[in-house]
Amino acid sequence: VIGLYWFHACRRETPAQFLAVLRDGIEPPPPSVGVGTRQLELALGILPPRVYCFLGRTLDVFGHYAFAFRCGTAAAHGEVSPFDTGGLMNHLLPVSGWPNDRRQEYLRAFSWPHSTLETLLAAYPGASKEEVQRYLDLTLRPEHPGPHVPFAGRPEAEIWNQDADWRAWTWEGRWASRLPIRDELVAWTCPPALFPAVIDLANQAHQADELSWYQELMTKHISGGLGGLIAMLSPQQVPT
Amino acid sequence: LIHVIGFEGLWPDDAIVAWGAAAVQTTDRLKNSLSGLDMPWLHSSSVQSENISFVEMPTIDLDDDYVDSPLVVLAVRKREETFRFFLPDTGRLQCLGSRYNKDGRFYVFENRVAFDTYAADASLGVVAHILRENSISTQQASTLLRQCLILSPANPFVHAVRVYFSGDSRVRTALLARACLRTNAEKKTFDEMLEALGDETSNGSRCWLKYEDGIARGGGLDAVDAAKQFTALAALDKRLRPLLLDRLPFFDAESEIPSIRIYEMRPGSANIGFEVSLPDRPLIERVARYFELQLLQEILRGAVPPELSDDPKFQDDLDKLVNPGDETRVLQIGFGRDDAEPVVFQPFSSEEAKPEKRFVVFGIIQGVVGEVKRAELKLFPGIRELVSITDTGFDGVPVGSHVFQNRNDFLFRPASFDVHRFIDANSRYRLFLQRIDVLEREDHAKVTAFPSSVVRGAFVLPHQPIDVAWHSGGVVVSGVLLTDYPSANHSSSDRLVEALSVWAKDKELELASTGQTTWIRAPRSPRPTALMRLLVSLDALNGRNTLSNLINEANRRFGTVLRRNNSLREINRSREYMAIGDDDDVVQLTNQGKLLVSIFKAAGGSIGDDPLVV
Predict the structure, then answer these.
(1) Nearest partner of A226 among A196, A185, A189, judged by Cα
(2) CA-to-CA distance for B344 and B352, rounded, in angstroms?
(3) Which residues, at least 6 apart from B85, have a Cβ–Cβ distance to it below 8 Å?
(4) What does the DSSP assignment read for B466-484?
(5) Between A193, A205, A229, which is nearest B150 by CB?
(6) 3-class secondary-structure state, position A8
(7) Max CA-CA distance within chain B?
(8) Contact state of B179 with A218 under an 8 Å Cβ cutoff
(9) Of A5, A173, B291, B427, which is least surrounded by CB within 10 A?
C-alpha cells in the first residue's frame, strides 16, 4: 500500500470548472493550451500532452485550486519518473545542458508504468518511516547523487546534486488521457475567499446523487489553499 | 529581515476578507509559508510575468527569526461599516505586522492557530451581531456570514445561523453544512444551535413542567407552594448561567443571558409552560432560553452536569423543584414532544451511601431548615453544607445537636463540626454531622480539615491539627488573628468566613509546598475553572509554550472553545501563577503555578483528555 498521495494544482476560471474536475476527472490540455509546456514536451518526446501530478506535494509553490488522491487503480494508466521532467530542459544539470536526443534517452530510461510504483518507491525513497519523512522534508536531498544509484544500469547524471532543489527529486506522474480521481480523492482545497461560491454551487444540487456527492466532497475540504492542503497532508503520508 | 510580499489565493471583489499562506521573500528565494515549498526569486516585479498565484500586498518586513514560521496573511477590504467586524485586535492577537493600502488592510499572523483564534473570534462576533439585530435583513446576514465561511469554514455556529437564513432550501443547506463540520462535538453543537434557532414551522419552542396530585390536587397551586416552586426555579436559573456562558461562546457575560421565561400556566392539574420565542425579541434571547431550558430538561432526565453534581445548594434547589411534597407527581414535556415524562432526580440517599472519611472542620452555623432537621453550615463564602441534625448516618443523633432544640443563640456562632463524609452510588457526597461544638468566647477547638480552595469538593487534611480559638480580640486560627468577632451576627460571620477562606488559600499552598498535608479528593472531578484549564494545559506543555499553543492544548484537552482575549485576561489576572512576555507570546508557569497544579491533581481536579503515556 502506498501512503504517499498524488497532488495536482490547477487554475480554473470559475469554481464550477474546478468542481467538474473533481467530479469527472482531469483531462490533458489540448495542444493549443500551455504553449511553454507543449514545447518542453515536444523537446523531450512526450506525445500527446499529459496531465502532470507530483507525489507527496505539488510542484507549484503557490496555487489556486488543488487536490490530492490515492495511488489507486484510477491512476494505473500513467507513467512515472523520479524527477520533474520540466527541469531536464531548464535547470537540472547536467541533463539540461545535453542535446535533445540524449535528454529523451535519459527520460525514457527513468520512466516506468504507474503499476510498478510501489516497487519503485521501495528503491527510492524507501518505505520506512524515516525514508518517507526524508522525502517529504524539502530541505533534505536524497542520499544518492542521482537516480542512477537506486535504479542501477541507467544513464548516470548527478541531478540530485548540491545546486538542485526539491523539484529535482520529486516523483512526477504523467497521464496521456483522462485521469478520474473521484473515487480516489483524499482532499481538495480552493482559495478561502472562493469557498462561499463552492457552497453556493453545492446548494444548487437537486438530484439526490448529486447532493450526496457534494456532501462527501465537503467532508474532504481542507481550508487554507494549496499551502494549507500540503501542510495538513504531509504528516498523514508518513507510515506509522 | 524577511519580507511578506503577498498571500496565496485570490481576493475577489465581492469578498471583504481573504487569507492564505504568506509569500515570504528572502534574499533569493520565495517561499509558501504553510507548505514550505519555495522557488528561486530575485525580482518582486516578476510577480505578474511569472504568473504566480498570490495576491500582492504592501510589503511587511519581519525579523528573520520568522523565516520558517507558518505565517498566515489576512486581508480586510474597507467596505461600508461591516468591515469593522473583521479587523483583528492586533494588540492581543499574535499579529506580527500590518500595512494598509487603497485595497484594504493586511495583517500577518504568526501561525495557523493564531489566525484560527482570530477567525473564531470574528465569526462569533458576527453571529452575536446577527442574533442581536432584530431588523437585520437576510441579505445583510448572508453577506456577513459569507465572510465567516471564508474565515472559519467549519464553525458550527456560523453554519447553523446560515441554515436559519436559508429559507426554502433549509433541508439541503443543513445537510451540506453538517458535512462541512469535522468533529462529533462540532456536529453536536451545530444540531443544538439549529434546534435553538428554530424556524417558522418549529413546534419546539415551548416546554412544560407538570405537577399532579399532592400540592396540585384540585387544580392549580396554592400561592405558598407556587412561590416555593418559582423560588427554586429562579435559584436553578442562576446556577445554570455559568454553564451556558461556557457553552455559548458568543455571549460575553452572564448578564447577557436572559432568564427562563414562564409564559403560561394552566390549572388542569398545575402546568407551568416555558417559552423561548417572544414576539419582537432578538433571536439571541431565543437561543439563550432554548439552551437553558434544554439543559434543565436534561437535568430533569437525570443528566446533571458534573460541575453541578456535587453542589449541595443546586441539588437542594433541584430537590425542592421536583420533590415539592408527598404524593406530588412531577412530569415534564420537552421541546417538540407530545408526551409527558416523569422527571428523574434521585436526591442523595444516605441508605445507599457509604462512609468515606471523618474529619473536623471549622465554620459558622448559618441557619436551620426543614423543621429543624437540617443545619446550614457556612465554611467559606461560596461553600455551604447542609447537614442533618437528627441523623449521623449511623442511626444515631449527632452529639451536641441539642443546641438546636434548647437554645436560640446558635446562629452565626463559630463552631467546630465533626463530620463523616458519605459517598453515594452516583459519586455524590454529603457530610453527616457526628458532633457539633458551638464555641463560647475563650473556647478552643482542634480542627483536622478545611475545604480546598483549589478543587471544590475536596478537603485539605493537614498532618497536624489546627487550633482555633475565639478570644475577646477576635477569632484566631493557628495563632493568626483572622478578624474581630464582637458578637455573633450576620456581618461578623460574613467577615469571618471571608478571612478564613483567605487564610486557608495561603495555608493550603504553604502546607503543599512543605509536604505537610494530604487531601480528601473530590469524589467527582468538577469542571475546572478557566484558570485551572490553562494551568493544567500549560503544565502538560512542560510548563512553557506560546499562548496559541496553550489555547490549542486547553481546547483539545477540555473540549472548550477558549477565546484568545478571554485567555489573555485570565492570564493577566493570574500573574502569580503564569508569567507572560511583554509581547503576549510565551507563557510560563511560575513556581506558585506549578504548586497549584500539583494540588489540583492531588485533590482530584479534572485534567481533561490526557494522552496515554506508554
Answers:
(1) A189
(2) 17
(3) B122, B125, B126, B129, B144, B147
(4) EEEEEETTEEEETTEEEE-
(5) A193
(6) strand
(7) 98
(8) yes
(9) B427
pLDDT tens profile B239-248: 899 888 888 8
Cα separation, B230 vs A17, whole angstroms: 61
Measured between CA atoms, how close is A74 to chain B, in angstroms? 25
Interface A-B, measured as beta-carbon pairs within 8 A, has a size of 132
Out of A122-136, B59-73, B142-156, B206-220, least confident range: B206-220
* Residue that is written with C-alpha cell 493557628 in the block: B478
Q: Crossing angle of helices B138-151/A195-203, nearest 10°?
A: 120
Task: Say if residues A160 and A145 touch (Cβ distance below 8 Å).
Answer: yes
CA–CA distance, B305 with B240 (Å, rounded to integer): 10
- Strands A65-69, B354-369: pairing is unpaired
A125 touches chain B (CB under 8 A): no
| Chain A residues 153-192 with a CB less than 8 Å from chain B | 165-166, 191-192
Measured between alpha carbons, how far is B577 from B592 in angstroms, rounded to an integer?
5
Strands (E), B472-516: 474-477, 480-483
Confidence tier at B371 by pLDDT (50, 70, 90): low
User: Count of CB atoms within 10 A of residue B543's CB?
Assistant: 16
> Hey, is B368 helix, strand or coil?
strand
**Interface test mutation site (partner A, options B19, B30, B37, max chain A beta carbons within 10 A):** B37
Q: Please determine, for residue B517, whether its predicted confidence score (pLDDT) is greater than 80.
A: yes
Q: For residue A26, what is the DSSP state?
A: B
Place of cell 409564559: B263
Say which residues have a Cβ less than 8 Å from residue A8's Cβ, sequence separation at least 6.
Answer: A26, A51, A52, A53, A54, A58, A66, A67, A68, A69, A181
DSSP H helices, B182-325, are 184-197, 223-247, 283-300, 306-309, 312-322
| pLDDT tens digits along B463-492 | 999 999 998 888 999 889 988 888 888 888
Beta strands B270-275 and B262-266 are: antiparallel
Question: ipTM score of the complex?
Answer: 0.95
* Torsion angle in degrees (nearest 10) through CA of B510, B515, B517, B522: 90
